[in-house]
Amino acid sequence: MNKPFSQACENNKRPILNILSKVFSKNKHILEIGSGTGQHAVFFGQHQPHLIWQTSDLPINHQGINLWLDETVLSNVQKPIVIDLNKTWPMPKNTLQVDGLYTANTLHIISWPLVVKFFDGIAQNLASEAIVCIYGPFKYQGKYTSDSNANFDFWLKDRDIDSGIRDIEAILLLANSAGLTLIDDHVMPANNQLLVFSKS
Predict the structure, then answer these.
(1) Which InterPro entries match (predicted)?
(2) What CATH number is given to the structural domain containing 195?
(3) Which residues pair with 135 in a beta bridge?
C-alpha cells in the first residue's frame, strides 16, 4: 500500500502550523480527531517536539496513518487510536492529561448528529483550560464565504445529504454548551477558518 496523500493537507499545513505554534505553545498533549492521511500529525509533530500528538481515526484509515508515522519515526507522535464519535472516547492511556484538541476538515464531512456528539466528547473528556482548534469552512449568517464554498457544499450534499458546510452560529452554540469560549476565528487560505477555543 502506498502512503495516502492529500493535496489540501500539503497546501494548508504551513498556515495552520503558524497558528498552532502559538496557541499550543504551553500545551503538552494534543488529541487529533480524524487524522485522515496522517500528514498533519507528522508535520505538526516534527515542528512542535514539545507536544505529544495522539492521532485517531476510524480503523479504515489506520494503515495509511501508520505508513506516514513509520517513515518519519517521531517519538512524540503516537500511533492512531480508534475514536468513533458514536461511542465513548477511549482516551490515551499512560500519558499526560489531554490539554488540547485539533481537528481539520471533519465537521462538514460527518453528519450533524455526529457534530453534536463531537462537542459532547469535548465536554466529557477535555480538561479545564484545554485549547481546541477546529479547521474547515463555515457559513456566516447563512452565507458562504465564497462561491467555491457554495459549490463545495452542493458537492458534499450530493455525495451525502447529511454532510455539508455548517453555520458558525450553530457551531458556537454547541461549543458554548460544551464549556468552550471562542478566542479567535482566523481567516485561512482557500476560504477556510481556524477556530480557537478555550475550555472553561
Answers:
(1) DUF938, SAM-dependent_MTases_sf
(2) 3.40.50.150
(3) 104, 194
What's the pLDDT at 94? 52
Note whether residue 177 is domain-resident.
Answer: yes
Q: What's the chain's length in residues?
A: 200
108 with 165: CB under 8 angstroms? yes
Task: Please check whether residue 51 is in contact with residue 83, taking contact to mean a CB–CB distance below 8 angstroms.
Answer: no
Number of domain units in the chain: 1
How many other C-beta atoms lie within 10 A of the C-beta of residue 170? Answer: 14
Low-confidence ranges of the chain (pLDDT < 50): none
- Reduced to 3 states (helix: H, G, I; strand: E, B; else coil), residue 173 is helix
Report pLDDT digits (tens) over 40-54: 999 999 999 999 999
Q: Is position 74 within any domain?
A: yes
C-alpha closest to that of 197 among 179, 189, 187: 179
- Neighbouring C-beta atoms of residue 75, cutoff 10 Å: 8
DSSP-derived secondary structure for 133-162: EEEE-EEBTTB-SSHHHHHHHHHHHHH-TT
**What is the pTM (predicted TM-score) of this model?**
0.96
pLDDT, residue 167, reads 98
Query: Scanning the structure block, which residue is given the C-alpha cell 462538514?
Result: 108
pLDDT of residue 93: 65
Burial of 93 (0-12, 13-18, 19+ CB in 10 A): exposed
* Domain hosting residue 150, numbered range: 7-199
